[in-house]
Amino acid sequence: MPIDRRAIPPAASESVWKAADGHALRRIDWPGCQTEPRGSILFFPGRGDNYEKYFETLEEWHRAGWRVTAFDWRGQAGSGRLGNDKITGHVEDFAHWIADLEAIWRTWKAATPAPHILAGHSMGGHLVLRGLADGVVDPDAAVLSAPMLGFVGDALPTGLMHNAAKLMTRLGDKRRPAWKWSERPGEIPATRVNLLTHHKDRYADELWWREERPELVMGPGSWGWVERAYASMRGLFGDGRLEAVAVPVLLIGTSNDKLVSMAAIERAAGRLPHGELVAFGNEARHEILREVDPVRDRAMAAIAEFLDRTAPKQ
Questions:
Q1: Strand 141-145 relative to strand 116-121, pairing
Q2: Strand locations in the chain, DSSP E?
Q3: Over the stretch 26-50, which tens digit does the pLDDT of each residue have?
C-alpha cells in the first residue's frame, strides 16, 4: 500500500512522555511485528523539525518489522517552547536534551525488543552521537542523517566563531533570534527548499503539516542556541571522545549540504572506531531522507544493509 505522508499512519499512535521535571514531550509509536520482531528504532529529528516530516521513513521501517518510536525535542514542534516566543528555537544548554535522551532511552529500551537502534537527523544526529560519547545510551547500532557536527559557511575558525557567538549572548537577550527568517514571523522564505531537498512534493508536505498543526511552526535559532551548539560540537571533537565510541555508527552526508559541514562528518567517520560513511554529492541536499527517490532509495538501502550486518535480528 502507498504511504500517505499527510496522515498519521494507521498503525501509529501519538502520546506524551513526561520528563522528571514535568516537561511534556510529544512522541509517536508504531507497534512493529509482535510475533517475530526485527528490533526497535528510536528516531529524533533536527533543529526546528517535527516527526511528521519523517512519516514516510518511519512507516517504511515499521513495515520492515521494526518497532518504531519518534520524539520531538523539548522546546520545539509539539514539545513546547523554551524562549521568548513561539517562533524562535532556544535552549539554555544542550545538556538538557542529553538528559531527556538518557531518560527516554532507559525507559524505551526496557519496553521494546532488541536489537535497539538509535537514529537522528541533523541536530538529532549530533545529540545521538553526543549521547554515545557521553555514555548515556548504549544502542546496538546508530544511524546519523546529515548530523550537525559543524556549520557551513563559517568565515573564521570554529573557536573564533564560538567566541563571537558568546559575545552576541552578552550584548543582548540570548533568547533573541540569531538570524532573520522573513519579513513576517513564522513565514517560510521561498528559497528555503533549495537548502533541504530537490523533491518539491516532499518539501510541500512540511508546509502542509505546518498549516494543519500550527504548533509545529519554528523559525530561527536563538543566539543562546548558536553559542551552545558551538560548545557542544567542539566538545564532541575533544581528544579521545569519538575514539571511545564502541558502537557501529553509520553517517550519511552530502558535499552539497548548505547547512552542516560534510568535512566535519567525514572527520567524525574517520575517528569513530566503527564508523561508516555514505557520501552523496550534488544530487542530494540536507534532508537526504526526504530527497528524490534515487537518492532516498540509496540511503534507505544503505541503512537496511548496515543494520542487517551490525544489528541482526535476534
A1: parallel
A2: 13-18, 24-30, 39-44, 66-71, 116-121, 141-145, 249-254, 275-280
A3: 999 999 877 788 999 999 999 999 9
CB 241 within 8 A of CB 235: yes
pLDDT > 60? residue 246: yes
What type of residue sits at position 278? V
Residue 186 has pLDDT above 70, yes or no: no
Q: Give the pLDDT confidence of 197-222 residue by residue, as tens digits.
A: 999 999 999 999 999 999 999 999 99
Residue 109 contacts residue 116 (beta carbons within 8 Å):
yes
Residues paired with 25 in a beta bridge: 17
Domains, the chain, with CATH or none: 13-310 (3.40.50.1820)
Half-sphere exposure of 46 (CA within 13 A, CB side): 23
* Integer-rounded Cα radius of gyration of the chain: 18
Task: Give Cβ neighbours of residue 111 (< 8 Å, ≥ 6 apart).
Answer: none
Contact 92, 223 (CB under 8 A): no
Strand order in the sheet with 39-44: 13-18, 24-30, 66-71, 39-44, 116-121, 141-145, 249-254, 275-280
Cβ-based neighbours of 97, under 8 Å, separated by 6 or more: 73, 74, 91, 127
What is the mean pLDDT of the segment spanning 11-24? 97
Locate 136 and state its grid cell.
548515556
Are residues 162 and 128 in contact, defined by beta-carbon separation less than 8 angstroms?
A: no
Backbone angles phi, psi at 40, to 5 degrees: -135, 140
Cα separation, 101 vs 107, whole angstroms: 10
Three-state secondary-structure class, residue 233: helix
Q: In the prediction, which pLDDT does 183 show?
A: 52
